[in-house]
C-alpha cells in the first residue's frame, strides 16, 4: 500500500511537471474570487491528480483536499475530516505568481496524511529540476530529477547555526504586519510556500515564517520533520504534530487556512528567530481574521 500510494504521488509530480513546463509560456491566467492567480497549468494538474487517485476517492477511507477544487471549502466537515484514514492534500502549482511570470520558483506539492499524521510527501520544482520526497521511512533531495543524471541525497537532521550568513524565508504578507531585526540574519521572500518549507531541509536558510493552507505544508511536512525541523506557533510555541480541525479557520470563507502564523525551525533556533519578528506599531497579537488573512 505504501509503495503503491507513493508511486502514484511521484507519477502526479512527474506528469504535472511536464504539464507545467509545456504551459509556462502560454501566458494565460485568471483571478479567482479571492484575487489569487489561477493558471491553466493549475487546472490541468488538478485534473491529472484527481484521475490518478480517483479509484481511491470512491472509497470512504480517502478524501482529497485540492486548492483548485471549487467545492473544497464547502466540504469542510470536522467529523469526516477526523474519521478519514487517508487525506490527500494537493497544490497543483504553488507559487502561481512566479509561474505566471515564467520564474522558476514554483512547485507541485502532494501530501498524504495517514490517521491525521504526516506520512508521504512529494514536492517537485520542475524548472529547477529538484525533487524533495518522503517515502514513509526516509526523506530525500534529488537534483536533476526524473533524468538519467539524478543525484539523490538523504535528508537528515540539520540545526543551522544562525549568523550573518543566514537567511530566514518569509511569506508574502510578512511585511504587512511585521518588522524584522536583520542584525545577524537576512530575510528573503521566494513567493512560494513549498519552497520556503523545503529549502531549509538542505541548509538553504535557517527556517521560514509560514501562514497558509493545508495544501501548502502537507507535502513538505514529513520532509522537514526528517530534517529535525518543525512548525511552531509564532504566538504560543506549540508545534503542529497532527491535523486537528481547531488549527483552521473553520468559520471563515477560507476554512483550510491556518488560524495562526508559524515558524519553521529547529527547536533551538525557534526562540532566536521569534525574537527577531516584531509586530508593526507594537500591536498585540490577536487571533482574528485581520491578522491571519494574507
Helix content: 25-40%
What structural class results from the helix and strand content? alpha+beta
Radius of gyration: 18 Å
Shape annotation? globular
DSSP strand (E) fraction? 25-35%
3D architecture notes:
The protein is of the alpha+beta class. The protein folds into 2 domains: 2-155, Fructose-1,6-Bisphosphatase, subunit A, domain 1 (Fructose-1,6-Bisphosphatase, Chain A, domain 1, 2-Layer Sandwich); 167-292, D-Maltodextrin-Binding Protein, domain 2. The protein has 10 helices and 16 strands. The chain has helices at residues 2-23, 40-57, 78-83, 96-100, 174-177, 193-198, 214-217, 221-226, 270-274, 289-292; strands at residues 29-31, 37-39, 62-66, 86-94, 107-114, 117-125, 130-134, 139-143, 151-155, 167-169, 178-180, 186-188, 207-210, 230-233, 262-265, 277-279. The strands form 4 sheets. The protein has a 7-stranded mixed β-sheet with strand order 3-4-5-6-7-8-9. It has a 5-stranded mixed β-sheet with strand order 12-10-13-15-14. Strand 5 (107-114) and strand 6 (117-125) form a beta hairpin. Residues 284-294 have low confidence and may be disordered.
Amino acid at each position: 500500500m505504501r509503495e503503491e500510494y507513493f508511486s502514484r504521488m511521484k507519477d502526479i509530480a512527474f506528469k504535472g511537471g511536464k504539464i507545467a513546463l509545456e504551459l509556462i509560456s502560454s501566458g494565460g491566467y485568471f483571478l479567482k474570487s479571492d484575487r489569487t492567480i489561477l493558471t491553466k497549468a493549475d487546472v490541468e494538474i488538478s485534473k491529472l491528480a484527481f484521475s490518478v487517485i480517483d479509484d481511491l476517492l470512491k472509497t470512504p477511507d480517502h478524501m482529497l483536499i485540492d486548492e483548485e477544487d471549487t467545492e473544497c471549502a464547502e466540504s469542510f466537515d470536522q467529523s469526516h475530516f477526523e474519521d478519514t484514514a487517508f487525506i490527500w492534500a494537493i497544490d497543483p502549482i504553488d507559487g502561481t505568481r512566479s509561474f505566471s511570470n515564467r520564474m522558476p520558483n514554483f512547485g507541485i506539492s502532494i501530501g498524504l496524511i495517514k490517521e491525521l499524521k504526516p506520512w508521504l510527501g512529494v514536492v517537485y520544482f520542475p524548472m529547477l529540476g529538484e525533487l524533495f520526497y518522503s517515502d514513509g521511512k526516509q526523506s530525500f533531495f534529488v537534483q536533476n530529477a526524473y533524468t538519467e543524471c539524478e543525484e539523490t541525497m538523504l535528508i537528515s537532521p540539520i540545526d543551522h547555526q544562525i549568523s550573518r550568513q543566514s537567511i530566514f524565508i518569509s511569506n508574502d504578507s510578512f511585511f504587512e504586519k511585521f518588522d524584522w531585526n536583520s542584525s545577524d540574519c537576512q530575510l528573503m521572500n521566494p513567493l512560494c510556500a513549498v519552497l520556503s518549507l523545503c529549502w531549509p531541509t538542505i541548509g538553504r536558510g535557517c527556517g521560514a515564517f509560514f501562514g497558509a493552507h493545508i495544501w501548502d505544508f502537507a507535502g513538505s511536512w514529513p520532509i522537514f520533520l526528517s530534517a529535525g525541523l518543525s512548525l511552531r506557533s509564532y504566538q504560543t510555541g506549540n508545534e503542529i504534530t497532527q491535523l486537528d480541525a481547531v488549527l483552521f479557520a473553520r468559520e471563515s470563507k477560507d476554512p483550510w487556512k491556518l488560524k495562526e502564523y508559524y515558524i519553521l525551525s529547529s527547536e533551538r533556533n525557534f526562540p532566536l528567530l521569534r525574537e527577531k519578528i516584531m509586530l508593526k506599531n507594537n500591536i498585540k497579537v490577536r487571533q482574528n481574521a485581520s491578522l491571519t488573512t494574507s
